[in-house]
Amino acid sequence: MASRSEYDIAVIGAGPGGYVAAIRAGQLGLKTAVIERDEVGGICLNWGCIPSKALLRNAEVVSLAKHGAEYGITFDNLKVDYSKAYDRSRVVVSRLTRGVASLLKKNKVDTIKGSARFVDAHTLTISPSEDVIVAKNIIVATGGRPRSIPPLPIDGEVVVTSRHAIEQKTAPSSVVIVGGGAIGVEFASIYHAYGAKVTVVELLPRLVPNEDEEISQQLERSFKKQGIEIMTGAKVTGVSKKGKTAQVKVEQNGATSEITADRVLVAIGIQGNVEDMGLEKVGIATERGFIKVDDNLATSAKGVYAIGDVTGKLLLAHAASAQGVMVVERIAGMESPGLDYTDMPKATYCSPQVASFGLTEKQAREQGHDVKIGKFPFIASGKALALGHTDGFVKLVTDAKHGEILGVHLIGPEVTELLAEISMTRMLEGTTTELGWVVHSHPTLSEALKEAALVAKGEAINI
User: Fold this and answer.
1) Do 257 and 275 belong to one domain?
2) What is the pLDDT of residues 39-63, one digit of tens each?
3) Sign of the dihedral defined by the CA atoms of residues 430, 431, 432, 436, in that order
4) CATH classification at residue 225
5) Which of 28, 141, 249, 265 is the most buried (most CB within 10 A)?
6) Cis before residue 128, ω within 30 degrees of 0?
7) What is the residue range of 404's domain?
8) Whole-structure pTM value
């Protein structure tokens, strides 16, 4: 028999936006339910961020083994088994999703299995149980899914999305990756480490096109040095399959070519999960396949909010989590600070890694800033030399007069771990002066941040 339950907050979707919002609501003493039709943790924990990072770690180990002679380690008959990498990624996922389920329970959040549909702005029906949820506030956190386009019909085996790729237990011997954004370049690194012939096709003029132009140039140089083929300013116009191989037609500079590959990974972006929830029934507006929200993440229906990928604001798991906390705290009457999406950190875990926040050099100049650049290459870093990974640099985009940090752009070994320090510096309104004052442990990669700040001030020591 169907039941009826009442809550202060109901969250639709238990990904990194939804489960964080639900936990924060539970901490604040609000009666909360989270509704999930698939797996707790959403795409990020189950089929995205987490398993891909586990696969990237395996790829890093394989790459180290292949270059063992540089470290005085030689052996014969190296064998690599991608299925073991897959198995390890699922162990990591399982541990994390169990942890999330435990945290929801600890914070007295009711986890409801099923699909939610709006009856009105405060009422949901859950299928297949037909239970009814009534809530003072509803947060939509249904996430997104990979986009597809007509020239690239997805079959889940030869032509695949990132989710299919995460679930496959074998690496291809050759692959065309359509899309040179974060997902595309991460899988390029994974498959290349396992011996695949990798071609990345990007429609725009450069890889990771949302990053600073110099970062894109460095990543392309690094990829080409590794043997990964790059085709920028190129468009895939069609795919034909013959058995378990694909013929990919690519247009570039007015010429058409064909590439044969075992697999085609379509990584051209995300679309919001906005269907089959009855949004139109309660007047929730959508735009370009995402839920339209204001600066408070409120939808056009009073009492209904949306967070995460389904809003299309910034397609990052940590952005979704931050949005979830902000919405819940404001519902609870707290003065939760707003979010600055320009300063939201971005991290891409290809090899070499890419990390950034703030304005690119071009954006800063276009906005009228008097720009001064502080740049320090990892070839001059003792720790990077010791690691044997010297491709890349730290680039600070600063205001020439006051040393304000306008943007930070990093490419190199483990640079995603350097974002926290520089983000804190920015949040506390620190400048290149303060960053240059901070004594860093030696030798560490983080010294490159200090050195770049000194370069911007004209006080460089180690370059």
Assistant:
1) no
2) 999 999 999 999 999 999 999 999 9
3) negative
4) 3.50.50.60
5) 141
6) yes
7) 352-456
8) 0.95
